[in-house]
Design brief:
mainly alpha; two-stranded antiparallel ribbon; 73% helix
Amino acid sequence: MPLQSYTSINRVDRKRSVIVSANVDKSQTSPSDIYNDILENKLDQLRQAFPSVKFALDGRAKDEKNTKGSLIRDSILALITIFALMAIPLRSYSQPLIIMSVIPFGIIGAIAGHYLAGLTLNLLSVFGILALAGVVVNDSLVLVSFINRALKQGEPLEQAVVNAGCSRFRAIVLTSLTTFFGLAPILLEDSLQAQIVIPMATSLAFGILFATVVTLLLVPSLYLILADIKRGMKRFYHWWWQPRTLG
């Protein structure tokens, strides 16, 4: 029986290497999930059987890992920029936080949308979530701006909050519904070309839909809570400083 050997010897960094590659069905899983499964379940067994063998990541999984690192940095920068863009015209550091409080709920809606659609979260899903963070704040900004304008006109706080929810309800709901149904053709498309953008469209569509419902309830409540906190801080300030000033 003739001896079998490699037809060629590959080297990486002057070390002999064996390249193991595979095509991933992204409708079932993602390269990062396979990579994590190998690290957690298979790699220790290989190291025990072959102590001299070293393992390295390459290809799309490596690119995806590197991209995730830059996405975290860019996401933090984007959130800071969104906060600054709203803090300057509103002249407040607390109101932008109220407006941005709906972003986590949009992310929950995006994850739920993937579950309902039977999709796995991948890098394009994260891109959609990043775009979602800049979109879901629009409805909150409309509510907060309406409340601020009503307060400047002399309306009581509770009445201004109620009027904001009633007056802006139709505009907020219609804006979100038109966005959702505008993305619906992409979600329903089954062609191969559309599979690339479906995760991103899913994040946007379901995230906006869920965040809209939360916005109509959360933002007015947080505005009232913020007003109570400010009143409490003023009372504490007067209680703490007035006796000492008089003394």
